[in-house]
Structures are given as C-alpha cells and as structure tokens.
Design brief:
By secondary structure, the protein is α+β, with helices and mostly antiparallel strands. Helix content is 19%, strand content 37%. The termini are far apart.
C-alpha cells in the first residue's frame, strides 16, 4: 500500500475542518438550548378546576422567559419574564406590561417589576414545568388589561388561590414569540 495522494489528503483535511465547524455550531446551539429557564409555559384552567377554586380569578396564564438585554448593577437580571393572563368574567388580556427582570438564584428566578406597578414574584422549576409563586408578604404582581392602567388586577399570596400557578411547557407562539 503506497502513500495517499495529495488530493486524498487535502479532501481529508477539508472534511476534518468542515466537521469541526459543524461540531462547534452544534455545541453553541446545545449551550443555548441548555438554558432551561428560556421558553414558554402555559395553563388553561378548565371549568371543573375553576368551580373547585371560586376565589381564583385567573382562567388562563402564560409566562414567557427570554434573555434580557441591558443588565446592570442598578438593574440586575439576565432574564425577562412576561406574564399574560385571561381573567374569569373579564374581557381582554391582562399582562405585566413591560415584563419583569429576573435574577437567577439557581433554584428559582426572582423577578421584579419596575416602574408604576412595582412587584416581586418567583419562577420555580418543577421538572419540565414551571411554577409562578407568590410566597412572601411583599410578593405580588399587577396585571393590566391593555392600556387601561386603572383596571389592573393584583395577584398576591393574600389570596391563596393566587399564590401558586403550575405552568406546562408550551409552543413559543402561545407566548406571542
């Protein structure tokens, strides 16, 4: 068996370089996908659930978590969480307007709403699901229907029916992404 031809050697090197580039792209995609906080979670509460929980005003909820631009020491948080909800016996979609900036503590995201409607809530992992939790006395989130700032709804642990929402993975389009 003789020495390989130059063209075979060059073809082999090109193949190695091509595979290395593809492998680097795959690793970058996997690293981005490995961030389990990013995504969309949703839940629609059926009539049976709502009948068992008459104090629960939320009929449906989605939470979108995306990477946040502009993190600083004055406004920490690598994530932004946008909550959208439908309320029982109300028209229109309610949301936390500009979203909330969220800080990763490992076990949960602690999210803060800034501006006119200050608030705080947690996003916790629950396997593939997420929980929106209002646990502390100062925890609450204001949801506003469209631009009608006067018709806001506040979710807080003072109403036990609004202290914890379990949400399941949903397609990005469910969160308007």
């Amino acid at each position: 068996m003789g020495m390989p031809s130059w063209s075979a050697l060059i073809a082999f090197i090109v193949l190695l370089l091509t595979c290395s580039g593809a492998l680097a792209e795959d690793v970058a995609v996997e690293e981005a996908a490995a961030d389990s906080w990013l995504g969309c979670w949703s839940r629609v509460y059926d009539a049976v659930h709502l009948a068992k929980h008459p104090g629960q005003k939320v009929a449906a909820m989605t939470v979108a978590i995306v990477a946040r631009e502009g993190e600083s020491s004055e406004a920490p948080g690598a994530y932004r969480a946008k909550i959208t909800a439908l309320m029982r016996d109300k028209q229109g979609t309610y949301s936390n307007l500009d979203g909330a900036r969220c800080v990763d503590s490992g076990e949960a995201l602690t999210c803060f709403t800034d501006g006119f409607f200050l608030g705080r809530f947690l996003i916790e992992r629950a396997g593939k699901n997420r929980k929106l939790a209002l646990r502390g006395a100062d925890d609450h989130v204001a949801l506003v229907p469209g631009v009608d700032l006067g018709a806001f709804m506040v979710l807080s642990p003072q109403n036990p029916e609004h202290a914890l929402f379990r949400l399941e993975p949903a397609p990005a389009k469910s969160c308007g992404q």
